[in-house]
Amino acid sequence: MTKKKIWAISIIIFILLIISVVIFKYILRDHKQQHSGYDTYTVKAETPIQIEGKAAPQSVKTYQYNSQVGTLIAATVEDGQKVRQGERLISYDTNTSKRQSMANKVNQAQQQVNKDVTQINQTPNDQSLQTKLTEDQSALSEAQQQLAQYDKQVNDSTVASFNGIVNIKNGSDASDGEPILQLISNQPQVKATVSEFDIDKIKEGDNVNIKINSNGKSGTGKIIKIDQLPTSFEDSTNTNAAQASQQGNTESNGEASGTQTAINPTVNNPSGGKDGAASKYTVIIGNIDLPIRAGFSLEAKIPLKTLKLPKNVLTKDNQVFVLDSEHKVHKRHIKIERNNDQIIVKKGLKAGDKVIKNPQVNLNDGEKIEVSS
């Protein structure tokens, strides 16, 4: 026998030996699994997102002494008093003749418009009457706007714009332009940030579990706003706005400058933040079901409904075997999405379902099996 034949036979024997070992291991694993049972995986929701933040009132309104409304008499509420929207907070000695004069202008303008309409009905083809009607209607609209603006100014300076708590500042000692009191909304909210890796997992309206650090009290709220831009953009915008304002002030003091600061500035090529640093987005949590003092720090958890699966529960055709209470398996087709090597369930399973790990190719729908875990 030649050396070539000996080498060929040796190689064939070696290959057969390897194949035998692989088959033996497969049979042994199948034998062990049949005797020890299948491992299972319980489907569960992804770990909640944990964030930290501070409580703040939803709104704070400062009521300043407005001499255009009248002469300040006094605040009609006490410090710390709870008030409802529409309740009077401040008393002024208003100039009633000023409002009456505005109301008279409205009445006179309305009478003139009515007179114009009557004349046009009598002489419909008179173009000059049509022109006069248009002018008088414009005068009426202007008079109505002036009266409405005055009433709004009085109402805005004296009446509670929302439910809240009163914080007296200078009270009746306030000078023109100084704060008389503040109205603090009794609806708290929490401002926090969420990483770019979690922002797509949440949406407005999602429930949030909160816990106050100082006293341990717990409650719930909802996400009411998610910023579209990262905090780095906000920081960049604020910096640019401050620089523009400073530049505008400098130019306005110059003798020959005709440049004006833009009221609605456009930021071109805004900063996206430092390279390599994860972006963060501001999230506002509202509809909180317990009182929180402004400034209190707290922890919040946002429960997630996302279901993830390990790779070893899937068959080749992306099906799973769901285990029932009688240890019978049911083959189920599910809809999944693969994202960064993660398997996310889109349809077909719910939290609490038990699925089989490493299902054998000969496992049948409805078969009763042994379970090890």
Structure description:
This protein has four helices and 19 strands. It is an alpha+beta fold and 373 residues long. The protein has three domains: 47-57 and 188-242 and 277-305, Elongation Factor Tu (Ef-tu), domain 3; 60-185, no CATH class; 306-373, Beta Barrel (conserved putative lor/sdh protein from methanococcus maripaludis s2 fold), CATH 2.40.420. The strands form five sheets. The chain has a six-stranded antiparallel beta barrel. α2 packs antiparallel against α3. The protein is elongated. Residues 31-35 and 254-258 have low confidence and may be disordered.
Key structural traits:
single chain; 373 residues; alpha+beta; Elongation Factor Tu (Ef-tu), domain 3; conserved putative lor/sdh protein from methanococcus maripaludis s2 fold; 3 domains; 6-stranded antiparallel beta barrel; 4-stranded antiparallel sheet; 4 helices; 19 strands; 31% helix; elongated; Beta-barrel_YknX; transmembrane
SSE layout and pairing:
Elements: H1 3-36, E1 40-42, E2 49-57, E3 60-64, E4 70-75, E5 82-83, E6 90-94, H2 96-122, H3 127-158, E7 164-168, E8 179-185, E9 188-195, E10 207-212, E11 218-226, H4 231-252, E12 280-286, E13 297-302, E14 307-309, E15 319-323, E16 329-333, E17 335-339, E18 342-347, E19 354-356
Antiparallel strand pairs: 1-19, 2-9, 2-13, 3-8, 4-6, 5-7, 7-8, 9-12, 10-11, 10-13, 11-12, 14-18, 15-16, 15-19, 17-18
Helix pairs in contact: 2-3
Protein name: Efflux transporter, RND family, MFP subunit
Organism: Staphylococcus lugdunensis
Coiled coil: 133-160
